[in-house]
Design brief:
Blueprint lengths: L5 E5 L3 H13 L3 E5 L2 H10 L4 E5 L7 H11 L4 E5 L4 H10 L3 E4 L4 H20 L13 E4 L2 E4 L4 E3 L5 E2 L3 H12 L4 E2 L1 H9 L9 H12 L10 E4 L3 E4 L4 E3 L4
Helix pairs in contact: 6-7, 6-8, 7-8
Amino acid sequence: MNLSTRLLIVDDDVGIRGLVSSFLEKHGFQVDTAASVAQMNAMLAAQPYALIVLDVMMPGEDGLSALRNLQKSGGPPVIMLSAVGTDVDRIVGLEIGAEDYLAKPCNPRELLARIRTVLRRVAAPAAAPAAAPAPDDAAEAVYFDGWRLDLAARMLFDPAGSVVALSDGEFRLLRTFVQSPRRVLSRDHLLDQALGAGSESYDRAIDVQISRLRRKLSFGEERANLIRTVRNEGYMFTPAVTRQAPSP
């Protein structure tokens, strides 16, 4: 089995499952289908998948609830499909952790393009050669607003000293911010740093990354906004940053 080409389509509409799976198989993918979240969970327990195409509105457990559980368990990347295509619903899906969100009915060719883009983006960090350290990476750790980011170990510690798990993209994004605190950084610049220069991205990709990083930088009840949106320009990392050089 080639994991990189095995997909799971989850939709209670038998017609959509048949149409989408047939189209994707013609373009080189191995495709399994499930009619419910319960079936999806059983299939995930039996074998891994490179990506899930998940319908939002289904009988029983809905797609958004399933997406939350997939995020908690470290499941594969998810593209959401929904007959409810409002901006609010789309943003909710992306905030929870979906890689992309398409309104139904969608063009199968567009879905194919989105799947390929997500799979390339997910594979890119593992396949890319290690980048040369940025000048500020000469520091062993940086401190801001009670937080500590260990650049060498790629670990983030909250003000209580607990480790906060970061994805590769989130770490690179936060590293970019601490290297340029209190400066406005454009979306394009941040996207290149988080996903790699020349990466194919979808609309609002960096906004979703920022939203996820903001949630992880929340601590206690005050939840200071460490990343400020600068309208029409980009984002600014607001706290002061201090650096600790490695011991000689």
